Amino acid sequence: MIAGKIEDLKIYSSVCPEFENIYSFVKEYFDAPKADGSYELIPDKLSANIATYNTGDAATKNLEAHRRYADVQIVLKGAERIDWAHISTCTDEISEEFSKGGDIGFYADPEYVSSMVLDAGTFVYLLPEDAHKPCVNAGADSAEVTKVVFKIKL
After folding, report:
1. CB–CB of 50/34 below 8 Å?
2. Which DSSP string do the residues of 87-121 spell out, in sequence order?
3. Could you give the CA distance from residue 84 to residue 60 in angstroms, rounded to a whole number?
4. What is the mean pLDDT of residues 99-116?
5. Which of 121, 119, 122, 90 has its CA nearest to residue 106?
6. Residues 6+ apart with CB under 8 A from 118
7. d(Cα 134, Cα 84) in Å, to the nearest integer?
8. Under a CB-based contact definition with an 8 Å cutoff, are residues 43 and 124 in contact?
């Protein structure tokens, strides 16, 4: 997992070359906002999905993990909490998506979970070992968030 401000994406382009395309897409968004929806940036390699939603209570959500894609999640407006645990600690899978060939699995929280707040202009880069629970209330109440999630095929 890597987290930081949008400008930091340029620093990490040697870690993930797609960060350059992601940075350009987000910079363009702030200059001329795009509608919620899906955007293919590099066919069969990099896509973006912009969504506006209300955050919710952590108890109503599950950790998720992916096998074939990395996520770059960037909050464009608002703030949300994202919980994280290493996949090796997630022993209680509550879905059968992986066994059905899907790319997402859901897990109950392990004993220890870390949390961070993503506010407008911050990102988190999540790899398959990073189980994560996004869209959680950053404070006591639900809030509206606009976020873009980039999927990078590994």
Report:
1. yes
2. GGG---B---TTTTT-SEEEE---S--EEEEEETT
3. 15
4. 89
5. 90
6. 3, 73, 74, 75, 79, 80, 81, 82, 124, 147
7. 9
8. no
Q: Is the pTM of this model over 0.90?
A: yes
Tell me which residue has tokens 């006591």. Answer: 140
Whole-angstrom distance, CA of residue 142 vs CA of residue 79: 10
Structural domains present in the chain: 2-153 (2.60.120.370)
* Mean pLDDT across 58-78: 96
Phi and psi (nearest 5°) for 60? Answer: -95, 5
Within the chain, what is the greatest distance between any pair of CA atoms? 43
Rounded CA Rg of the chain: 15
Determine the residue type at 95.
S
Cβ neighbours around 72 below 10 Å, total? 23
pLDDT band for position 121 (cuts 50, 70, 90): very high
